[in-house]
Amino acid sequence: MIHFFIFLPVLASLLIFLVPVRWREEFAGAAAGLTLAGGLWSWSVGGLSAYSINWIPALGVTYSVQMDGVSLLLGIVTAFMTLIAIIYAGKRIPNPGTMLSLILMMETGLLGIYAARDLVLFYVFFEDALIPALLMLAIYGKAHRMAALIKFAAYTLFGSLLMLISIIGVKYYGGSPTFALADLQAHPVTGTVQTWLFLGFLAAMAVKLPLFPMHAWLPDFHAQNHDSGVADVMGTLYKVGAYGLFRFGVILFPDAMLELRPILMALAAFTALYAAWIAFSQTDWKRLLAYAGLSHMGLVGLGIFSMNETAMIGALFLLAFQNVYTGALFLAAGMLQERVGSLSTKVGGIMTQAGALSGLTMTLWFASIAVPGLAGFIGEFSILLGAYQVSPWLAFLAGLSTIAAAAYALTAYQTTYWQVRPAGAVLAHDLRDLDWLILGAPVAVAIFFGIYSGPALALVQPVVRAWMNGLGGGV
Amino acid sequence: MALYWLPLLPLIGFLLLIVGGRWFSGTSGGWLGSGFIGAAFVVALVRFFGLSDVPAHETLWTWLPNMALGTGGVSANLNVGFYLDQLSSVMTLVITGVGFLIHVYSISYMREDARFTRFFALLNFFVAMMLILVLADSYPLMFVGWEGVGMASYLLIGFWFAGHKDHNAADGVNNSNAARKAFIMNRIGDLGFMLGMFLIYKVFGTLVIPELAGQEGTLAVTSRPLIELICLFLLVGAVGKSGQLPLTTWLPDAMAGPTPVSALIHAATMVTAGVYLIARSNFFYDLAPGASMWVAWAGGLTALYGALSALNQTDIKKILAYSTVSQLGYMFLAVGLHSYTAAIFHLVTHAFFKALLFLAAGAVIHALHEEQDVRKMGGLAKSMPFTHIVSLIGVLAISGIPIFAGFFSKDGILASAFAQNIPLYLIGLFVAFLTAFYMGRWYFLVWRGEYRGDTKLHPHDGDAVLSAPLGILAALATVGGFLNVPSFLGGGHVLDNFLGRAIPVHEHEILASTEWLATLIAVAVALAGLGWAFYEHRRRALQVGPLGQFSFQALYLDRLYTAVVGNGSKVISRGLDTVDNGVDGAMNGIVSNVGAPGWLVTIWQSGFVRAYALSMLLGTALIVGYWALKAIGGGL
Questions:
Q1: DSSP letter (8 states) at residue A421
Q2: CA pair distance B619, B612, nearest whole angstrom
Q3: B448 contact partners, CB below 8 Å, separation of at least 6
Q4: Pick from A58, A388, B368, B493: most CB atoms within 10 A?
Q5: Is B194 within 8 Å of chain A by CB?
């Protein structure tokens, strides 16, 4: 089952070219739907247990996968948002076969990242997801896409290289027989070496978190991707740095993470505030969303780096659900662009003409700026509360981003959706058929899990407890 | 009836009206929305009569990780739960009762509006959130209601986001800005509230209010500075929501919303949430004399600030708005002096007479076709006799004239200030004088003298749907004070005793003769204020109030904030944006220099980033290839 869940999308991404052109949207949708169903089924049976065989015995590389609560939550969210992205891509992009194939290919990479319990396997999936992301930008991007692409690739590959070195180092210095997480955990690396290896691992994760100052690829990446926002959904899902740090960093480099905790927390808190403040002066919805996402990722980083149980639960919760509403906001920006031909935040008066689009977008924004009762709040509140237990001042600094978030979100919202529609501007039509599903489903998820968070919490909490106990519980 | 029905009923109303807006034609959506609030009022009544000395505590489902007390050193998950004691019961009655009246009033007031049904959806949403706020059994759940009402307030202030009939650009920008300002300034307070919660959790390991209040032993031995700090953090939150100094400037701007919104949210209920928060946290504040003094002074100074700003306003609603700021200051003054019951009493009577005044103002605005300038009114007593009478009752009530509601409640606050803190008492007395004056000015400018406005208009009283709520509120503003008659006037402190079963009542030792004297002084001051207004009215000098621009600009506080904070953060934002592009450039520079072994130099000259990416790819491929070879070799 677990292999089906991981590899069904990539299989579909290859088979799609055998399908007649007119059926490709339906085929991709069915594949993504099946994957999501697989994820939901796995949830209903309480996760998928570990599976491990040797892959390249000579190198000690194993094929070890598992879907525990955290992996499952992130996996299901990935499958869900992929399905939403495919529906919108099929509706918006003419002859979308290539795009659909790339989305599905990327989905397998992302699911693999969450399932992998072997460092080299993790690395393989990590790089695997990069290729479709680059191709989407290269094929469907805007005028200055090559610059954005090169920047994105350079940052990612730079981080990946350091990560690869540190992966090899972890096995070499610890004396583990394989790269499987369980073996590495049994043969820990200690002392200064651990710190250096962690820094190598951190480099890759900081690019993908992203964390200041490794974030510079992000705004260009989003601004240059296709107007529809489909590729941006996948890009948002690709921010797996925090997950990597949780899954491998906490287990393999506990001393280093504790040692560097003040610096890393400060960096994360700074990222959260810095990005939120910059978002305030953006006039392009996609750039604004890029900085808003960066700000949230700063908070996620703060939660992970604080090594506090509540904060870490909050961080994983926020990581999962910000994918839903940030992704949906990219699609909402795409719908705005579809109607008025612009991504500017100064369009004005959309709500007088497209009430449902504006209302759902507003709900997503409220989720994004962590209004309680919506899913964003549970994550942010837990993170800040947990971080406060470790460092009150840094929690305060990061907490300032909640004020800045209200400022940037409502300002841009106001000048786009409120105020008067300029005379002579095109008439923006309201949501039509599938649009309702594309925005409505994420809104429903954001509301449901904001109020009734128990099911999602039950996935995350036990795993985080077990992970923290793996540290000796004394933190 | 389970407690969850209280917020659930308005929430169902909200969902029906927001999703099915187009199915409700005419005023049916308004009646439906009012019906849900009426039903909630019935539930509140049932629960009120079912109250015992043991508070009701009903928990529902798991919500937040690790934020409640568990067993064996492992913290438990926080549940969504509702808690009803005498304090929250009084609040639910006020919210649903006054809320119902304002809903009914709105059916007539908003009849012409294109988004009629949506208006009621949002009003229902607000009531649901406000009920969650007062019924919450934990601080985070209270925070749900707290930000929820903020959201509702944002949506309703910005209800006319595109200006009059969606076609007035300047109006649209103004209304939208006012809504946004309210939300952002509330967020500043909310951060304080959150920090308060974080610190409470750090010290006590739980955020459930009954659990905290039950920890008397732990509370007593907790170091005082920590408790003081908790109380100061919570004060920041309360100040934001209740429009107290220094976070007060959003509240007068909030008058951009429709008048029923001003009455319900920005006078009767939401803005009193700060008072409720402090009264609810009395077990902290009783142990924090320093922070309590801050609360009292924040209240006293805001009362003065609001009264001074109200002196020379020209907008019929702005006068009432600054008056609200000022009256909320009284309530803060009272909770700061630990006279929680006096504050709640004033909260209740204020809800009656301020809602009444706003709704009456709305009736005037309606009758004069959106005219809001009091200088263009006058003499309306003849053409709108009913509205005139209820307005007069409201003015007498807020001025503290005996037998009307405000007299008893304001007197309770002044008496406790007199017993504890003479400077604050003097401020309170002075504010009472100013209140009587500016309300007198409001009354004479609107209702007496000659009509100064557009002669083409023929103002008249509203229809029955509009007038009935006014009549009921006027009755409540008249007799509401008898809820809590002090003993020296032969009363039995009914409300004090009732609330005293849930929150502490600190008795003050004042001689009955002294109390008589203080009361007489207060009444004399109120009469003097009204008399001054009448004198100015006879001189026809009321149109320009005292203090000129200083008062009109609300002591220039808003301008100061816009200049320093508003523009400051914009400049910083632009600066950081530039810096961020710089970071980008710097990273490119570092990248190009770090990996600069000589043989690649020629390629880098043609565009180093691309070449760098290429080299990374090649490097990765080399390593993987080396491994692959090694693996094959090992396998052989």
A1: P
A2: 10
A3: B378, B379, B381, B537
A4: A388
A5: yes
Note whether residue A374 is domain-resident. Answer: yes
Chain A residue whose CA is closest to B577: A278
- Option in A164, A282, A453 nearest B63 (CB): A453
User: Cβ distance B530 to B362 under 8 Å?
Assistant: no
CA torsion sign, B80 to B86 to B87 to B92? positive
Q: Any idea where the domains of chain B sit in the sequence?
A: 5-552, 599-636
Tokens of B66: 């690790």
Beta carbons of B162 and A421 less than 8 Å apart:
yes
Which candidate from B167, B576, B612 shows the least CB-CB separation from A278?
B576
Query: In the structure encoding, which two tokens stand for residue A118, read together?
Result: 């072997």
Smallest CA-to-CA distance from B258 within B367, B132, B338, B358 is with B358
The model's pTM: 0.92
Measured between alpha carbons, how far is A203 from B118 in angstroms, rounded to an integer?
50
Give the gap in angstroms from C-alpha B616 to the nearest C-alpha of chain A.
6
Contact with chain A for residue B66, Cβ under 8 A: yes
10-residue mean pLDDT series, chain A (475 residues): 90 92 92 94 88 88 91 95 95 90 94 94 91 91 88 87 92 90 89 91 90 87 92 92 92 91 93 92 92 94 93 95 95 94 89 92 94 92 95 94 93 92 86 92 95 92 86 42
Q: How far apart are the first and last CA of chain B?
A: 78
Beta bridge partners of B56: B84
- The confidence score (pLDDT) of residue B579 equals 82
Alpha carbon distance B423, B427 (integer Å): 6
In a domain? residue A347: yes
How many folded domains does chain A comprise?
1
Q: What size, in residues, is chain B?
A: 636
Q: At what angle do helices B385-399 and B464-479 cross, to 10 degrees?
A: 30
Q: Is the dihedral of CA B437, B439, B440, B446 positive or negative?
A: positive
Residue A74 lies in a domain: no
Calpha distance B308→B101 (Å, rounded): 31
Residues ≥6 apart with Cβ < 8 Å to B294: B232, B235, B336
> Which residues does chain A have within 8 Å of residue B161's beta carbon, measured at their own beta carbons?
351, 414, 418-419
Q: What is the pLDDT of residue A473?
A: 38
Residue A9: closest CA among A98, A57, A79, A113: A79
List of residues 6+ apart from B537 with CB closer than 8 A: B440, B441, B444, B445, B448, B449
Q: Which amino acid is at B350?
A: H
Closest residue in B to A352 (Cα–Cα): B166
d(CA B438, CA B81): 44
Domain that holds residue A373: 260-475
CB contact under 8 Å between B620 and A157, yes or no, is: yes
**pLDDT tens digits for B379-416?**
898 899 999 999 999 999 999 998 899 999 999 899 99
∠ CA A37-A43-A47, nearest 5°, is 120
Set of chain B residues whose Cβ sits within 8 Å of the Cβ of A309: 66
B573, A281: Cβ pair inside 8 Å? yes
Q: Which pair of structure tokens corresponds to residue B629?
A: 């070879």
Is B161 within 8 Å of chain A by CB?
A: yes
CB-CB contact of B116 with B13 (8 Å) = no
Q: Is residue A115 part of a domain?
A: no
CA distance linking residue B415 with residue B470, whole number of Å: 31
Nearest to B191 among A56, A400, A451 (CB): A400
Q: Which one of B117, B131, B206, B576 makes the best mutation probe of the A interface by having the most chain A beta carbons within 10 Å?
A: B576
- Residues B210 and B59 sit within 8 Å (Cβ to Cβ): no
Peptide bond into B246 cis (omega under 30): yes
Distance from CA of A344 to the nearest CA of B (A): 17
Closest partner residue to A151 (CB to CB) among B609, B619, B634 is: B609
Chain A residues closer than 8 Å to B630 by CB: 58-59
